[in-house]
Design goal:
Blueprint: H1 13-18, H2 23-35, H3 37-42, H4 49-58, H5 76-89, E1 93-97, H6 101-112, E2 117-122, H7 125-137, E3 143-146, E4 149-150, E5 160-161, E6 170-175, E7 197-206, H8 211-223, E8 227-232, E9 239-244
Parallel strand pairs: 1-2, 1-6, 2-3, 6-7
Antiparallel strand pairs: 4-5, 7-9, 8-9
Helix pairs in contact: 5-6
């Protein structure tokens, strides 16, 4: 995966169409898509080339190490948030939901800033294998696991990763999946991992400018008063940053 590779508008839409979901949830996807189409067009932009070059230089990566960003891939602003968090926190464990370009950035940042392990979950078994091989070609390693989609926890809509062997010491939680095409509120179920966060952990939610993620953020703020959530509107897609409050 390099800058020579193209980026599709949606991530594997054929799979999501084949998954069983209630009619109400399918209608929600259509309704939200009709409302947020201007944002979806904006999200095709992955950030300035100069910012991407600066990110790659900071991580000592080749100029073409990352694919074209934007659309369903993270933009440069979100990737900088990841690197900044790892440099500051030096987390022992990073958990990522949705592997891809961000996996390389996380693995390289961990390698550069004090070690730590990356455990990344994704619903596409073939993409898990491809991403693992890609990271190895860049001289880094990560524990990338296939997590099929199934029933979500906590009465959230859509489908959710069927996670196994989840660590209990998550220092950084990076949420970039599942895709909104399953349901606009699908990423809300990531709160099932919040009890596993360490006392100084951070949560980074990508695509926070979308209407669905804004509703998710509102619910999280009510349900998790021990976590301070701040919305960064910069970048193409916005980032929700959650900081566990000490004590």
């Amino acid at each position: 995966m390099t800058t020579r590779d193209t980026t599709q508008l949606l991530a594997r839409p054929d799979l999501y169409d084949a998954l069983p979901r209630p009619l109400r949830e399918r209608l929600d996807v259509i309704a939200f898509g009709a409302i947020q189409w201007p944002w979806l067009l904006c999200s095709l932009w992955g950030g300035r080339k100069a910012d991407k070059a600066a990110l790659l230089a900071r991580l000592d990566l080749p100029a073409d190490a990352l694919p074209n960003l934007g659309s369903w891939k993270a933009d440069t602003r979100f990737l900088f948030h990841i690197v900044d968090a790892i440099e500051r926190l030096r987390p022992a464990t990073v958990v990522e939901l949705g592997c891809g370009a961000s996996s390389l950035v996380i693995a390289k940042a961990l390698q550069k800033y004090g070690g730590g392990r990356l455990i990344s979950y994704d619903q596409h078994q073939d993409f898990v294998a491809e991403t693992g091989a890609w990271l190895a070609s860049q001289g880094v390693a990560a524990d990338i696991r296939h997590a099929p989609l199934g029933d979500p926890p906590g009465h959230w809509p859509g489908l959710w990763y069927q996670l196994t062997d989840i660590p209990s010491d998550i220092g950084l939680l990076v949420i970039d999946g599942p895709p909104w095409a399953l349901h606009p509120l699908v990423r809300g179920a990531a709160e099932s991992l919040f009890p596993r966060l360490t006392g100084d952990a951070l949560i980074l939610l990508d695509d926070a400018a979308r209407i669905g993620e804004r509703l998710v953020a509102r619910r999280w703020r009510k349900r998790w008063p021990s976590i301070d959530f701040v919305y960064d509107r910069a970048g193409a897609k916005g980032t929700l940053i959650g900081a566990v409050r000490r004590g």
